[in-house]
Each structure stands twice: as C-alpha cells, then as structure tokens.
Amino acid sequence: MTTKQQQRMSFYRKIRISLGLMGILPFLLVMYLFIQEQISFSNTIILCAAMILFSILVGFTLLRQSADQLSMLARETTLPEKIETIQPIHLHIDGELENIATNFNAVVKQLNQARHDIQEQSIQLLQYAEDLAGSYEQLKHEEQLRNHLSRYIGNDLVDQIMHSSKEVLLKNQRKTLTVMFADIRSFTALSEQMQPEEVVTMLNEYFTIMVEIVFSCNGMLDKFVGDQLMAVFGHMSGDAEGAKNGVLAALKMQQATEALMQKRAGNHQPTFQIGIGINTGSAIIGNVGSENRMDYTVIGDTVNAAARLEEQAKAGEIIIGEQTYKHMPRTIQVKNRIELPVKNRLQPVACYTIKRKTIVTEPKRDKPSAQHSSSLHGTTHQSVIIAPA
After folding, report:
1. pTM of the prediction?
2. Where is 50: in which H helix or E strand?
3. How far is it between the farthest Cα atoms of the chain?
4. Is residue 85 exposed (0-12), middle (13-18) or buried (19+ Cβ within 10 Å)?
C-alpha cells in the first residue's frame, strides 16, 4: 500500500472507529462479559450504558475533529469577491483533506499565474493601443500634409517629400532652381468685359489645366498672383532637370492654352493668350512671412529676372534665361539671335528665337463680337525667345 493510500485511509479509519465506538464495540463487550457470567444482569445494564456513553463521547470527539478540519478547509478555500493575489493555504490536517489543500494550492498558483499573464497582456494591449493612437495621429498629420502639399506639387513629388528628411526639405536653403512666370495678356481689358463670376470661372478653368501641366513636369506651384502663375522646377531633381522640365512645361502650357481658347471660342466665350518667362539660377527657398502666416516660396535675383522676362514676353511667347537655355532639350531648334531690353538692367540681353508653327482654326460664329477680338485664329507662329540672365 502506497503512502498516498495510507493517507487516504486515515480519514476513513476515523469514521469507522467512531461508528464502532458509538454502536458495535460497547454492545459486543457487554455481551461478552455477560455470557462469561462475570457480571450480573443489573451490572450488565449499567456497564452497557456506561460503555455506550463513553463510545458516543469518543466517537463524537473524533467526528467533531474531522468536522472542524472540514470547516477550516472550507473557510480557507473561500475566495473574496475582489482580491489581487490568491494566497496558498497551509493546514495541518488529515491526509485526504491535505490532498484537497494541495490541489487547491496548485489551482491557486495557476490562477495567480494566469492573472499575472492577463495583467501583462493588458499592459501590452494598452501600449499597443497607445502606439496605434500615435500612429493614427501621425498618419492623420501626414495625410493633412500630403493634402496640403498636393495643392502645390504633383503626387510623385509629394511621395518623395513624405519619404525624405523633413529637416532637409523644410529648412531655408540656397539651391539652383528654375523659376517660371506665366501671365494672361491684356487681362485687365478682358475682365472689364466680363461678369465677375465669369472671370473667376475662366481663371479656375485655366489654372486647373496649367497646374496639372506643372505637376506633370515635376514642378512646384509657388503662388497665384491675380492672373499670374509662378512655378518652380528643380527643387527635387537638380538644376539640369529643372531647366528642362521648366521649358517643356512652358511649351505644353502654350499648347494647352491654344486648345482651351479653341473650346472657349466655340462656346462664344472671350479668349486670351499668355506670355511666359523662365530663368535658372541660384535662389533661396524656404519659409518666408510672419509668425502667424508663412509661405514656402522662392526669393532672389533669379526670381526677379524671371519676372522681368515674363513682362517682355508677348502673347504666345516664352522667354528663357541663358542658364535655362544651356539645359533645354536640343530638339527645340534655335533661330536668330536678338537683343531685348530688360528692366533694371543697363545692357540689353542677347536672345535666341525658336519658332514653332501651330494651326488654329476658329469655329464659325453667328455674329462677331468685340469680346472675341483676342481669340486665336488662322495660322500663327509662337516664338520662344532664349535670353541670357
């Protein structure tokens, strides 16, 4: 018989002894003495009663001891409603009850470990929740920044900026840039013949097309000033690509303007032409303004020169500085060299003319109108004038 079996027998043994003492043993003892005629009948009754009383007291004592152990075990294993850690129990009781206490302690250990694991997982989940909240706020901020940047540059450049160092991109720095100015010719006279709503609608339609072209050529929209558009190229790709993209954007803008004017002429709406000036050189790009309002823009002599070249450009013309000319696509043929006077410069600027032929046929109209006097018609020649800055 194993030790555990012997321990299990101890409680059973107490119960059997108690029952024996309380019932069977006194009766057998008295009957034995009576049969042996060692005591009289009256003594037998007295002895029997005494033995029964003694057996009952002893049996009751043993049962009470076992009951007390059960009560103590039940009391120790009762768990309160709220408790941080369940403590194991340590009792000196019979073998069977001690096994119950041992198993209870094993369960308590597992429960405490499970509670500890749950607490750790809860802390981790809270940390994950905080990280997710932080990531959400960061993504929300990046999305707002992306939406803001997409108003000024194309999606490809937005992606480059979002994956680049913000300190490098947003700090004030001097770079070689290509600056473009595009302006509607005779806009004041044109707008006086139109209702304000018509002017705004026309500008929005025109600027939407121009901005798409700037973005498609990796340019950055700097600002709108009335009917004038300012764009910057090369802020991400470098001076060579910037000059090339600026010239290509200017050519596309002139072509797109001609197509838009054909559409407007067909709808009997006023039409116009634009002049463009482009210059490449060193400029400062950064945040300029007050503490309450700042613009990410470009300043410097390169910008001023580009604005002056745009002022010299006639309707349908593009004027380009010398550094821009050096990097422009060689597929554009250069024609005669001329000189142009530029405001705030003592000497005239040497220029090169590039001519491309475009055929623009004006749709038939029922009645000619003075509002359409500036529309494109017939066979025209667009001059691209290349000028040293």
Report:
1. 0.59
2. helix 41-76
3. 160
4. exposed
Residue at 301: amino acid letter? D
> Is residue 101 a contact partner of residue 91, using CB atoms and an 8 Å limit?
yes
Q: In whole angstroms, what is the distance from residue 179 CA to residue 321 CA? A: 10
Closest CA to 281 of 301, 311, 267, 254: 301
Q: What is the torsion angle, in degrees rounded to the nearest 10, for the CA atoms of residue 54, residue 56, residue 61 and residue 65? A: 150
Domains, the chain, ranges and CATH?
1-141 (no CATH), 171-386 (3.30.70.1230)
Secondary structure letter of residue 282 according to DSSP: E
Q: Are strands 318-320 and 274-289 parallel, antiparallel or unpaired?
A: parallel
Each residue's pLDDT tens digit in the chain (389 positions)?
454 444 444 555 666 666 555 556 666 666 666 666 655 666 666 766 776 677 667 666 766 766 676 677 666 666 666 666 666 666 666 666 667 767 777 777 777 788 788 888 999 999 998 888 888 888 888 787 777 766 666 666 667 666 665 544 556 888 999 999 999 999 999 999 999 999 999 999 999 999 999 999 989 888 999 999 999 998 876 667 898 899 899 989 999 999 999 999 999 999 999 999 999 889 998 888 887 777 778 999 889 888 988 988 888 888 888 888 888 877 876 666 777 776 777 777 667 656 554 433 333 444 444 333 333 333 344 555 555 44
Paired strand residues for 323: none
CB under 8 Å to 193, separation ≥6 — which residues? 270, 370, 371
Helix, strand and coil content of the chain, in percent to the nearest 5, comes to 55, 20, 25
Q: Are strands 337-340 and 349-359 parallel, antiparallel or unpaired?
A: antiparallel
Is-contact 112 79, C-beta < 8 A?
A: no
